[in-house]
Write a structure and sequence with these properties.
Rossmann fold, five-stranded parallel beta sheet, 12 helices, about 15% strand, globular
Length: about 350
């Protein structure tokens, strides 16, 4: 890689070539899974701090640490550990009993690497764009830190998504990737859609982001994805023509996210979802193409995607979920090992 990984926080910290090296390692690990115990994490401990619920993230990290000979400790903030404050200069007279300034370095003394998962607050778009919680942990941690999803990105999901794209398509370069918005029952963060378009762009795909007006993604993320698409000879387009975009796709990636214009307005957000309920993805979105159907999970059946599509030959959502383990194993090994993992 162009530089040693210190933390794994954002796709924006790496080049496309860096990400390709991680994917290559992940695919090597998956192909030689019986030999994982040779990879040298014996005695290594990962501390995972969850501000929000998880199924795949927690289980995949605990599983890969066990498979690689290490151990993972899971901490749920406000549950089995103190509520945490991250703001500098805060007067801590509320629910938070401990500050990240102490928590991160203490956990660093106990663990060889840390992971943090924290969702967007969906009350202030400018505040969410700062990714303050994960950045606070990064400043105060003295061991490598992995972003297990933050307000702006889910790079572990993005890495697994790119791995899945290249497994299923072979050479993904030049193929058409469509990220389509879909309705939900509540506002959701933009972290996964941000990472999805960065993953596709880093693989050299042409990307179309399709959504109703008012659901624009972060401009800086879109600009970075555009530059990666252009470097590969492709393009990134924004559209509100969902059916047309999907029926020309090689990959349809479905994801719900909230409107930045409706931050802090849950009732208005719910009304907006109801107005756009026809954006639910079903078999008509495939036309006569044999496109892949992707979603990060969990997915609300028959709200976001119809049963018929999720259960069809197009769907690779379970393969995506499995690849979380292998992609994250590659990241952990890069962060923890001083020697090159075995070929």
């Amino acid at each position: 890689m162009t530089a040693a990984i210190r933390h794994f926080l954002s796709f924006l910290d790496y080049t496309s070539a860096d990400l390709t090296e991680l994917i290559d390692l992940a695919r090597r690990l998956k192909a030689n899974r019986a030999d994982l115990h040779r990879e040298g994490l014996h005695g290594k401990v990962m501390g995972m701090v969850f501000f929000n619920p998880s199924l795949r993230t927690r289980t995949s990290f605990e599983s890969l640490m066990a498979k690689l000979g290490g151990h993972a400790i899971c901490l749920s903030v406000g549950g089995d550990t103190w509520s945490l404050e991250h703001r500098d200069g805060a007067v801590m007279d509320g629910a938070a009993a401990e500050h990240v300034r102490e928590a991160a370095p203490v956990l660093s003394r106990y663990c060889d690497l840390l992971g943090v998962r924290t969702f967007a607050g969906l009350k202030d778009a400018t505040e969410d764009a700062q990714d303050a919680v994960i950045r606070s942990f990064a400043r105060h941690s003295t061991v490598p830190l992995i972003n297990m999803e933050s307000t702006m990105e889910h790079p572990c999901q993005g890495l697994a998504d790119r791995m899945t794209l290249e497994e299923k398509l072979g050479n993904a370069r030049g193929r058409r990737f469509v990220l389509t918005w879909a309705p939900h029952v509540k506002g959701l963060p933009m972290a996964v859609p941000h990472s999805a378009i960065l993953a596709a762009a880093s693989a050299g795909m042409s990307v179309t982001v399709v959504h109703p007006p008012g659901y624009e993604l972060n401009a800086d993320i879109v600009s970075k994805a555009q530059s990666w698409c252009a470097a590969a000879g492709g393009e990134l387009e924004i559209s509100d023509q969902q059916i047309n975009a999907c029926q020309s796709a090689d990959v349809i990636y479905v994801k719900s996210w909230g409107s930045s214009a409706l931050y802090g307005q849950p009732q208005e957000q719910t009304k907006s979802f109801a107005r756009h309920k026809d954006w639910r993805v079903d078999m008509t979105h495939f036309g006569d193409k044999d496109a892949l159907l992707m979603h990060c999970l969990p997915v609300r059946r028959n709200v976001v995607i119809a049963d018929a599509a999720l259960d069809s030959r197009h769907s690779v959502v379970v393969d995506q979920a499995e690849n979380r383990l292998w992609a994250q194993a590659a990241v952990v090994l890069r962060l923890c090992c001083t020697t090159e993992p075995r070929p």
